Amino acid sequence: MATHRLISAAATPEEEPINWSLRPTRIGEYIGQSDLLQRLSIAISAVQARKEPLEHVLLHGPPGLGKTTLAHVIAQEMGTKVYTTSGPALTRGTDLVAALTRLGPGDILFIDEIHRLPIAVEEFIYPAMEDFRIDVPVDSGLHAKTVQIQLKPFTLIGATTRAGLISAPLRSRFGIAHHLDFYSTDQLLAILTRSAAMLRVPVSDREALRTIAARARGTPRIANRLLRRVRDFTQVKGDGAINPVTVTAALKLEGIDPLGLDDLDRGYIRTLATVYRGGPSGVEAIAASMNEDAQTLEDVVEPYLLMIGFLARTRRGRMLTRAATDHLDLPPPADASLGGDAAPEGLFPPA
Ligand code: ADE
What we know:
The chain is of the alpha/beta class. It is 42% helix and 13% strand. It is globular and about 70 Å long. α7 crosses α8 (206-214), α9 packs across α10 (244-253) and α11 packs across α12 (283-290). The chain has 14 helices and nine strands. β4 (133-138) and β5 form a beta hairpin. It has three domains: 33-179, Rossmann fold (3-Layer(aba) Sandwich); 185-253, Helicase, Ruva Protein, domain 3 (Orthogonal Bundle), CATH 1.10.8; 259-351, Winged helix-like DNA-binding domain superfamily/Winged helix DNA-binding domain (Arc Repressor Mutant, subunit A, Orthogonal Bundle), CATH 1.10.10.10. The strands form three sheets. It has a five-stranded parallel β-sheet with strand order 2-3-6-1-7, with helices on one face. A two-stranded antiparallel sheet has the order 4-5. Bound molecules: adenine (ADE).
């Protein structure tokens, strides 16, 4: 299962405390996402001068890139509190009454996986977002009525890996929306350098950290996880200080190749290359051949393969590029339009 992958971007419950200790708490400590941080710090300074709450913020992008961290960074900068919940945890609108009524002026309500908010909850929060007011039903049947409760002006921060699943009315109620991008190797190197110092891990060679950064799939959470695995390996098999030899050996043992691909990624590429001759193929068909879940492939395997140019999503389906088959020494894709530069979505006439 994808959740057990060393390079899964999803956080495991055991690593949550250590992730927290490594997270930046202020904008000044945050590495990467500079456009977003610039926009946020301007917005924060402006509303603080006007003594207003920050507009509602929607953060979207692949898992592990820092959406939750950013919500806490924003609260810290605003000098306010943050309350956290998630789409799947809320089933009825009234589930939010307690959370919303205890928010102080300028406090933040963070809703993770906001694309999984049931429609009833979504409709319940519209007036909260717009007018800082909720309509709470009391009694039912013949005596049904609602009471209106006025809330303190607060900021909703919604996070999602699937912006496309957010309804237009909900999306339109966010004043600020921003996509988080994968981090560059240099940015991940800076994050790892900071983490190694915080964890007091001796590093004999900066190139060793660069090797970890290059295999972390553009994702800080993965980079920090690989660092901890390399630290264990070095402590047991090496001389205690992380160096390029222990990094390479540790990551090889974990099945992570120089591009950061693991068994699941390689399985995906191999299936698409051999069963479907490089595509085009639908993700459901690939998932069925691999005995995997299509959603998992879409959320955790494909974004990174798309980013490194190994995969193209076209109207006709998923297509491997020549770079992908070359990487694994597989036969090149059969489709003539694939030469490592498959046409992007939209260029193909409908099938
Ligand atoms: N740790 C995890 N993500 C980070 C980031 N973006 N900046 C600094 N440290 C981090």
